């Protein structure tokens, strides 16, 4: 496992479109997912310890954002041949087990991860209502620690609340950290 940090936010960069199958049995595009106040595109996977450490809190925070008009989508782009724990059937199991309230999509060709220049899992792309990038930072300051800190920052949640309220993300952002995307 290699820990990587994605680059900082490229403010105003437009979200590339996609059409990917979801664990719910339907295909999803960017237009289907855009929220009234924004969209959070998350590159995650099943086996990454950084993702595993935040799953429950992620589900809660995405429910909060949905109430504010910000939708969310999770995309898994890992090579499922060499990382079978990230395959579509396991994605369905994880989405059910953690009660994902957002679509969980498979990017089998890895074209979407490449279009977004995704680097790691998790890698967060927070867009405003015009689908302009406003946040590319970490979830919180907890890292892989499975025991939540009482005073953990909520970087992603607070940033997307700001995006929902103003259309702009915070100027100060700390890069996410996670496992490298498993390229074919």
Descriptive notes:
One of its GO terms (molecular function) is oxidoreductase activity. Pfam families: AhpC-TSA. InterPro entries: AhpC/TSA, PRX-like1, Thioredoxin-like_sf, Thioredoxin_domain. This is Thioredoxin domain-containing protein. Residues 9-165 form the Thioredoxin domain. This protein is α+β, with helices and mostly antiparallel strands and 184 residues long. The protein has a single domain, classed as 3-Layer(aba) Sandwich (Glutaredoxin), CATH 3.40.30.10. 28% of the residues lie in helices and 21% in strands. The chain has five helices and ten strands. The protein has helices at residues 30-33, 49-67, 88-97, 111-116, 155-166, and strands spanning 3-4, 19-21, 27-29, 38-43, 70-76, 104-106, 120-121, 123-128, 133-135, 178-180. The strands form three sheets. It has a five-stranded mixed sheet with strand order 6-5-4-8-9. Strands 1-10-7 form a three-stranded antiparallel sheet, covered by helices on one side. Strand 5 (70-76), helix 3 (88-97) and strand 6 form a beta-alpha-beta unit. Helix 2 (49-67) packs parallel to helix 5. The longest helix has 19 residues, at 49-67. It is globular. It starts with a strand and ends with a strand.
